[in-house]
TrEMBL record:
Keywords: Signal. InterPro entries: DUF7944. Residues 43-124 form the DUF7944 domain. It comes from Acinetobacter kookii. Residues 1-20 form the signal peptide. NCBIfam families: MCR_0457_fam (NF047330). This is DUF7944 domain-containing protein.
Length: 129
């Protein structure tokens, strides 16, 4: 079940974020009151899955600059309280208690295969827009 959730997260993470961005942009175009739902608590597994994208994607995308922009935007959305979410994720990846979670995320990314990972990574290159 945990493996399925992480695979689903890695595939659905960017799609969900892109949809939320589109909905936010469309909503700001109207003069309506919008009910805002607070963000749910981010799990260590989600942060690990995001960090693993920084390891996997550079070898799978052509436009590294756009990937870096999309990755930075995604990381900042998950860690809005951090001044630099990318460096915060890098620091977290070195913490002893985070290493088993990160290892599991790496295994899940490996099991997903290059085709799925490339699809996710490619979506990140357009996420910065």
């Amino acid at each position: 079940m945990k493996l399925f959730m992480l695979k689903s997260l890695s595939l659905g993470l960017l799609t969900t974020a892109a949809m939320a961005l589109s909905m936010t942009h469309a909503a700001t175009q109207k003069d309506e009151n919008i009910e805002v739902t607070p963000l749910q608590k981010i799990t260590q597994q989600e942060l690990a899955a995001i960090y693993v994208l920084s390891e996997v994607c550079p070898g799978l995308v052509k436009d590294h600059a756009k990937f870096e922009q999309g990755y930075a935007k995604l990381a900042q959305e998950y860690l809005p309280a951090e001044n630099n979410a990318v460096s915060s994720l890098a620091k977290l990846s070195k913490e002893k208690k985070f290493k088993p979670i990160l290892a599991e995320a790496r295994t899940d990314a490996k099991k997903a295969g290059d085709a799925k990972n490339q699809e996710i990574c490619q979506e990140l290159t357009t996420y910065s827009k």
